[in-house]
Amino acid sequence: KKIPKLFESLKIKDLTFHNRIGVSPMCEYSSKDGFPTDYHLIHYGSLALRGPGLIIVEAAAISPEGRITPDDLGIWNDEQALALKRVVDFVHSQGQKIGIQLGHAGRKGSTVPPFFHLKEYAKPEDGGWQTVAPSPISFRDGVLPAPRELKIDEIKEIAEKWGAAAKRSIEISGFDFVEIHAAHGYLLNEFMSETSNKRTDAYGGSFDNRTRLVLDVVAEIKKNIAIAKIPLFIRVSASENLEDVDESGWKIEDTNRLADKLILAGVDVIDVSSGGNSDNQASRTRASVKEDLHVTLARQVKNHVGNRALVAYVRGLKTASVAESLLEENVADIVLVGRNFLKNPGLVWEWADQLDIRVTAAQQYVWGFYPPPL
Ligand code: FNR
């Protein structure tokens, strides 16, 4: 019987994923001083027991100012990385692969966790801080104070901190791979887009200048991890335009142009998302966004990169048949699921049932479904 594409293994560099279904990175805002808590062990552990080919741990800040909220996960020091090892070790004990998304929130930092308020600034007395960005333009006028414009040497330091965070992720925590967060209007995306980047130095203006930081970050990561062996993912907002309106800002053509450079620099997987760099398009999950937007975007990126890189699809996946068709039709090579994994950590198992094949999950769970001989 033919194995559905979703359940085919996938080898990237020296790492083999046992299927092509992944848990999309999702901030849980449940950390203390950047450290993971028991919440993380249970949350990621319960997912790992039930068979995803890969889990991408939520955006972890490369520096304290890089957090979205004071409760974000961080990996700016060795102790935090060591605390994450507990999560990684458990996931590995289940024969599963796990990576981590490394991010910096830029001007979208210092907010309160979204389950308390969707649009509120975290004041200094709530653990907030002065945010930083390419240019001093508030993301949300009248609500979020303007960020401070970064100096050139600070920008260089940020790239180095990304490299150090990647090194910690691999060497101390034991993650199998890393993902750079360059989407959703956070720092790297702010540099990439002319709507948020008004600099006139080497980091602003031309396309090459606006993409300089993200490429510096890749270069720093390359210096710090064994890039020939370890898969490198990057999440981009492939377009700032979420609806059919002509707006300025980053476009799919820019993404494809950047993809060429990223591939040459050693990136393996382009994880295609959208939006987030303007307040009226702030929500990744907004209902008004066309349902198939990411199918269109992922297809355009895949058509452009061909076999030079893998593409990850994310958004709205519920059923195995839709996910399978994305792989069959060569829209993407990997499918990521966010919210439906929160609702159902057994989603991979459910999809295996829908496709009538056996799942690979914790033996403690599956043996009762597929008993050994008497
Ligand atoms: C997210 N998303 C997200 N994306 C990202 O790149 N890094 C992150 O840390 C987060 N955090 C996050 C938290 C929560 C609670 C949600 C719901 C979403 C976006 C997420 O990874 C995914 O791209 C979207 O949710 C769309 O996929 P689904 O949920 O429709 O499968």
* Residue windows where pLDDT falls under 50 for at least 5 positions: none
Bound molecules: ligand FNR
Q: Helix/strand-derived class?
A: alpha/beta
Query: Which percent bin holds the helix content?
Result: 25-40%
Multimeric state: single chain
Beta fraction: 5-15%
* Largest sheet, spatial ordering of strands: 3-4-5-8-9-10-11-12
Specify Rg, calculated over alpha carbons: 20 Å
The number of strands is: 12
User: Which whole number gives the mean pLDDT?
Assistant: 95
Q: What is the terminal-to-terminal distance?
A: 26 Å
Counting DSSP H or I runs of 4 or more residues, the number of helices is 12
Q: Helix-strand pattern, N to C?
A: EEEHEHEEEHEHHHEHEHEHEHHH
Major sheet description: 8 strands, parallel, barrel
Domain NADH:flavin oxidoreductase/NADH oxidase N-terminal: 5-352
GO molecular function: FMN binding; NADP binding; NADPH dehydrogenase activity
Protein name: NADH:flavin oxidoreductase/NADH oxidase N-terminal domain-containing protein
Keywords: Flavoprotein, FMN, NADP, Oxidoreductase
Structural description of this entry:
The chain is an alpha/beta fold. It has helices spanning 38-48, 78-93, 152-173, 187-192, 207-210, 212-224, 252-265, 293-305, 320-328, 339-343, 347-354, 363-366, and strands spanning 10-12, 15-17, 21-23, 54-61, 98-103, 132-133, 148-149, 177-182, 232-237, 269-273, 310-314, 334-337. The chain has an eight-stranded parallel beta barrel with strand order 3-4-5-8-9-10-11-12, surrounded by six helices. Strand 3, helix 1 (38-48) and strand 4 form a beta-alpha-beta unit. Helix 1 runs parallel beside helix 2, helix 3 packs parallel to helix 6 and helix 7 packs across helix 8 (293-305). The longest helix is centred in the middle third of the chain and has 22 residues, at 152-173. The radius of gyration is 20 Å and the shape is globular. Residues 24-27, 58-59, 101, 181, 183-184, 235, 273, 284-285, 314-317, 337-340 line the site of ligand FNR.
